[in-house]
Automatic annotation (TrEMBL):
Similarity remark: Belongs to the NAD(P)-dependent epimerase/dehydratase family. SDR39U1 subfamily.
Family annotation (Pfam families): DUF1731, Epimerase
Limits of the DUF1731 domain: 249-295
Alphabetized Gene3D superfamilies for the sequence: NAD(P)-binding Rossmann-like Domain
Organism: Phytoactinopolyspora halophila
Listed InterPro entries: DUF1731 (IPR013549), Epimerase_deHydtase (IPR001509), NAD(P)-bd_dom_sf (IPR036291), SDR39U1 (IPR010099)
PANTHER family: EPIMERASE FAMILY PROTEIN SDR39U1, SUGAR NUCLEOTIDE EPIMERASE RELATED
UniProt cross-references to NCBIfam families, sorted A to Z: yfcH (TIGR01777)
Domain NAD-dependent epimerase/dehydratase residues, every copy: 3-221
Protein name, entry field: TIGR01777 family protein
Length: 298
């Protein structure tokens, strides 16, 4: 298959492109810097600039683009960038795909489990659950709607609502590891909130499943089937590192360190991947223990 990938230099994109290429697929990376060879296509989604011709005849497009959510404090300007780098970028890509003479069969576009809100307690959330409020929830809703032009053109659109993707080099877990290695890690803000995680391998496999299996469309929760509380996640991580998990990180410290983003990570989202499972996808790492162990060993 020939597959175009936007946001290909990130945590998920790098792993996805490596997996597709290793299996002989033809990957076309959309890059914001100048292209270096024919496997790359320069685009500038901020100003709506791309040559659509190399996209003619692709089988699938994957959109993973967006400025880092946890990288900086959320100033007004950065919140605007978080939105525009996803919503504007997705709308531009969806419109470009819709305008092709030979469009792809499927467009897989990233979203997040924050679609369901900030704090839903112990409620089990599947793809039929109602959305809720909060900055990231509003962002996710508008992000998903931004792909509308592709569905209107008859392209099957899969909205992938990612949970916390586990990796020891990048993302949320990589930032926790140094503290844990020094024996200074512990539950966040009480630890009773659910964390819905997924291993990087399952993320890549699930994206490939949606690309390769005909008939997939709509929202898919990209999480492991057995979400756990932050306290349990912390306990397993400390155990696998052979370190104690003694020091709880209090709410005030989180709020000072992370600003408004602290509310989002201290909230509880117990999300299950019902549609993936019902479609026949099998997770390699369904439990916190298997997913964390995989992240630590890869
Ligand atoms: N990882 C998670 O735990 C998680 C959880 C929920 C949702 N998500 C979402 O899933 C997507 C992929 O996740 P990821 O972890 O791979 O993200 P990532 O590592 O932050 O990579 C995102 C990619 O987006 C592109 N990008 C960065 N700034 C941009 C901007 N201003 N405008 C347009 N594109 C920009 C970059 O690719 P190029 O430089 O190649 O363009 C970057 O590598 C992201 O949209 C993320 O928000 C991830």
């Amino acid at each position: 298959m020939r597959i175009a990938v936007a946001g290909s230099s990130g945590l998920v994109g790098t792993a996805l492109c490596a997996s597709l290429t290793a299996d002989g697929h033809d990957v076309l990376r959309l890059v914001r810097r100048p292209a270096t060879d024919s496997s790359e296509l320069h685009w500038d989604p901020a100003i709506g600039d791309v040559d659509p011709n190399p996209l003619e005849g692709i089988d699938a497009a994957v959109n993973l683009a967006g400025a880092g959510v946890g990288e900086r404090r959320w100033s007004k300007a950065y919140k605007q960038l978080l939105r525009s780098s996803r919503i504007h970028t997705t709308a531009f890509l969806a419109n470009t795909l819709a305008g092709l003479d030979d469009p792809p069969r499927v467009f897989v576009s990233a979203s997040g489990i924050n679609y369901y809100g900030t704090d839903r307690g112990n409620e089990v959330l599947d793809e039929n659950s109602e959305p809720d409020g909060g900055f990231l929830a509003g962002l996710c809703r508008d992000w998903e709607e931004a792909a509308q032009a592709a569905s209107a053109a008859g392209i099957a659109v899969c909205q992938t609502r990612f949970g916390i993707v586990l990796d020891r080099h990048q993302g949320a877990m990589s930032r926790m590891l140094p503290l844990f290695r020094w024996g200074l890690g512990g539950p966040l803000a009480g630890g009773r909130q659910y964390w819905s995680f997924i291993s990087l391998a399952d993320t890549v496999n699930a994206l490939r499943f949606l690309i390769e299996k005909e008939g997939c469309a709509g929202a898919y929760n990209m999480t492991a089937p057995e979400p756990v509380t932050n306290a349990e996640f912390t306990r397993v991580l400390a155990y696998l590192l052979s370190r104690p998990a003694l020091l709880p990180a209090p709410w005030l410290a989180l709020r000072i360190a992370l600003g408004e983003f602290a509310h989002e990570i201290a909230g509880s989202l117990r999300v299950v991947p019902t549609r993936l499972t019902e479609s026949g996808f099998t997770h390699q790492h369904p439990t916190a223990r298997s997913a964390i162990a995989h992240a630590l060993s890869s």
